[in-house]
Design goal:
CATH superfamily of the largest domain in chain A: MetI-like
Oligomer: heterodimer
CATH superfamily of the largest domain in chain B: Periplasmic binding protein-like II
CATH class of the largest domain in chain A: Mainly Alpha
Mean pLDDT of chain B: 90
Strand order of the largest sheet of chain A: 1-2-3-8
Largest sheet of chain A: 4 strands, antiparallel
Distance between the termini of chain A: 57 Å
Helix content of chain A: 55-70%
Helix content of chain B: 25-40%
Strand order of the largest sheet of chain B: 10-9-11-8-12
CATH class of the largest domain in chain B: Alpha Beta
Shape of chain B: globular
Number of strands of chain B: 14
Largest interface: A-B, 52 and 56 residues
Bound molecules: glutathione
CATH architecture of the largest domain in chain B: 3-Layer(aba) Sandwich
CATH topology of the largest domain in chain A: MetI-like fold
Structural class of chain A: alpha+beta
Order of helices and strands of chain A: HHHHHEEEEHHEEEEHHHHH
Number of domains of chain A: 3
Structural class of chain B: alpha/beta
Number of domains of chain B: 2
Radius of gyration of chain B: 20 Å
């Protein structure tokens, strides 16, 4: 009798039930997963589709027009993966930098007391946020192709920068032996700046005397390498683009595909960042500003020491989320042919090799890893901010 | 969007039942239509008009198969696909056959789980430039920017050809034909390269075709033909012999207008299903070839109607003439 009771109460126990349900859910998921994979393998085998990762070391055989690392059709499919991955990261980083700058400006402008500025910023947000990003990419790309001149009629800036349908051509710095010292001086300058700042902060804490460090910083970070550069007799020259045959050769080229993509992504993502910044600033209680003023802080000090630290706590998490979106949206480049990961590897290699499962698996894994990294960053930032705040 | 399609295609591949494997004919008959993958629009080969009706020599192969299996050449569901999408669509069972200017290569035939059922157009890769460029040979193209469509044999051939001739170029790659042509029109590149047939077709789509010249060099072999999934031999036979029926009809001289003429030529009577029992071998009714020729016509009719000299595309038969007329078009015998 007693035993039965324990069994019943064991079954009625909330905790046991919860565990049981979790186990059942897990089993169901595992089953669905297993049968999916099983079916996949069976189907692939039945259709005699070639499988495995041997294709990665095969010759790619096709050209890629933009690559940060050396690439020719003789390279392997794995190399194409790297080329695409690096291009994706380049677009992500450049896009994030510009989206943040534009977003910051628009977000602050939106709160401006100047009616016109605030309305313009509002209009910008409404316009660019509501047009699908793919359409914006195609729009800017085709507009650029239609309106810009052909190579022969390029816009010419001082015979060194040229703009035409095929891209923006700028002189490229080419380092000569000895240039490494300049880089070393630059790094040294940054390290010295950190110590210098620490020193003046300590002085401030001990004596209350505030020293402006901006002059020293510029001197160390920029001045020091400049001096080394000049002492070594300028170990660098510029490679200028020039028109040879059909196209400009030499220098550095930013293709219309790259420009249209990063421009559209920045402009689009900036609208979300602007809104995040605005809501961050608005979230700071008015009383905080008034208290800061009552304590005798100047307008700038109040913004820097009181408002921004609190505003950023609200604004940064959604902003980082937008960084993630921007990175994922970069895969839309396939529409205009910028060779990022999805276009070059998930598209062209997939089509030439035909192994959808392996190639899309690798591609998805990359986006997953990038997403996880950005989420990790978000968590770290969140933690830091909340400790500082309270 | 595209990625979404691709990911879902991969997952369809993962989850689709085994049943898709065999029995394409049964599926087609149950659905009452043939799902045929075609291009997104390449005049003369596969293109839809303003009312949504598809025409072209690739379309005619789809129609021939529909006439053979369903007795109705209009019972086709056309699925427009880019070069990049086509094979996954076929592998995953989204379409029953692919008839989309697709080059027969060993990689595609032997590693993708697909089979090429024949050749309906013998092609080769060529170059087109603006006449104003004043170039008359592809060997003068060093340093040029070249517009190409992604996921094609075109981009592989170009790299091979450039390498063996020591020619440098920059490629401008797009996913869709529309963007490739737009790039060429806008001057993003100096040259457009693709199958010569595609060049002629695209030239007619430009504002003033006389402003563009197709260069004389042909740098590759591009045998274009219909493709099916590997593993369904009956369906493979149906597609292959539907195309062969059109070619044989031209050899014998049967046209859509003369299908009902009874002759004393045994081969002709066999082809028209009035004698013999070859239809049993492919599992279709005895009028299957009759329906093809009556409703779609023989190969010559299809060619002349869609891309022949009297059409804006204006392609001469050339190598695509019958073997008896100096070409290489040839069907195994109906016997
Ligand atoms: N025959 C080549 C090229 C086929 C191809 O896709 N050609 C392009 C340019 S002519 C095309 O048909 N585009 C039409 C479209 O994407 O809808 C192959 O099989 O890879």
């Amino acid at each position: 009798m007693k035993k039965d009771n324990t069994i019943i109460s064991f079954l009625n126990n909330n905790e046991t039930r919860a565990i049981a349900f979790q186990v059942i859910t897990l089993l169901i998921i595992a089953f669905v997963f297993y049968s999916g994979i099983d079916n996949l393998i069976a189907n692939i085998e039945a259709r005699e589709i070639h499988t495995g990762f041997a294709f990665l070391s095969n010759r790619a055989g096709f050209d890629i027009n933009e690559s940060m690392i050396a690439y020719t059709p003789e390279h392997s499919n794995l190399r194409v993966f790297y080329v695409g991955l690096i291009n994706t990261l380049v677009v992500a980083v450049v896009g994030i930098v510009f989206a943040t700058i534009i977003g910051l400006i628009i977000g602050i402008a939106r709160l401006s007391n100047n009616w016109l500025i605030s309305k313009l910023a509002g209009g910008y947000i409404e316009l660019f946020r509501n047009i699908p990003i793919l359409i914006q990419i195609l729009f800017w790309y085709n507009i650029a192709l239609i309106t810009l001149p052909s190579p022969r009629g390029s816009f010419n800036f001082f015979d060194s920068v040229f703009i035409n349908k095929r891209g923006i051509y700028v002189p490229e710095p080419v380092s000569e032996p000895g240039f490494a010292w300049v880089l070393i001086a630059f790094v040294l300058g940054i390290i010295l700046t950190v110590f210098m700042r620490r020193h003046f902060k300590k002085k401030h804490d001990e004596t209350g005397i505030h020293t402006r460090t901006i002059g020293y910083t510029i001197g160390l970070v920029l001045g020091l390498p400049l001096v080394v550069f000049l002492l070594l007799g300028s170990p660098m020259h510029l490679d200028y683009p020039s028109l040879k045959g059909f196209n400009f050769q030499g220098g550095k080229t930013f293709s219309p595909e790259f420009l249209a993509l990063t421009f559209s992504l920045s402009v689009y993502t900036a609208t979300y960042i602007a809104e995040a910044i605005r809501s961050g600033i608005e979230a700071v209680d008015k009383g905080q500003k008034e208290a800061a003023a009552a304590l005798g802080l100047t307008q700038a000090q109040s913004l820097k020491l009181v408002v921004l630290p609190q505003a950023l706590r609200v604004a940064i998490p959604p902003t980082i989320n937008q960084y993630l979106n921007l990175t994922k949206n970069s895969s839309l480049a396939t529409a205009i042919g910028y060779p990022e990961l999805m276009a070059a590897f998930g598209g062209t290699v997939l089509n030439q090799v035909g192994q959808a499962v392996e190639i899309l698996g690798m591609t998805m894994a990359v986006y997953l890893v990038i997403s996880l990294c950005i989420s990790l960053l978000l968590n770290i930032v969140n933690k830091k901010m909340s400790i500082k705040g309270r | 969007m595209k990625q979404l399609v691709k990911f879902s295609v991969a997952s369809v591949l993962a989850l689709s039942a085994f049943a898709v494997q065999a029995g394409t004919l049964q599926d087609v008959q149950a659905n009452g239509s043939v799902k045929c993958g075609v291009s997104k629009g390449l005049a003369g080969f596969s293109a839809a008009d303003s009312s949504g009706t598809w025409t072209g020599i690739d379309v005619d192969v789809c129609r021939a198969v529909a006439a053979a299996t369903l007795g109705d050449a209009t019972a086709v569901t056309f699925v427009p696909l880019t070069a990049k999408e086509r094979f996954t669509a076929l592998q995953s069972g989204e379409i029953d056959m692919l008839s989309r200017n697709t080059t027969w290569t060993i990689t595609r035939d032997a590693s993708l789980g697909l089979n090429f059922a024949g050749v309906n157009y013998y092609d080769g890769q060529g170059f087109m430039v603006k006449a104003s460029l004043g170039i008359d040979t592809a060997y003068d193209l060093g340093g040029a920017a070249v517009c190409i469509q992604a996921g094609t044999t075109t981009e592989l051939n170009l790299a091979d050809w450039a390498k063996s001739n020591g020619i440098e170029y920059t490629s401008v790659v797009s996913d869709t034909n529309a963007q490739t042509t737009a790039n060429y029109d806008a001057g993003r590149c100096d040259v457009l390269t693709t199958d010569a047939s595609g060049l002629y077709s695209q030239r007619t789509a430009t504002n003033d075709p006389s402003e563009h010249v197709v260069l004389p060099e042909i740098i590759s072999k591009e045998p274009l033909g219909p493709v099916v999934r590997q593993g369904d031999d009956q369906w493979f036979n149906i597609v292959r012999w539907s195309l062969n029926a059109m070619i044989t009809a031209e050899e014998i001289g049967v046209t859509s207008a003369t299908v009902d003429v009874v002759s004393n030529n045994p081969e002709r009577e066999r082809l028209m299903g009035r004698s013999g029992n070859t239809h049993e071998y492919v599992g279709l009714s005895s009028d299957w070839t009759y329906n093809i020729i009556a409703q779609v016509g023989n190969y010559a009719e299809s060619f002349e109607r869609n891309i022949g000299l009297s059409t804006p595309i204006g392609i001469a038969r050339g190598v695509n003439a019958l073997w008896t007329n100096g070409g290489i078009l040839y069907s195994a015998p109906f016997r």
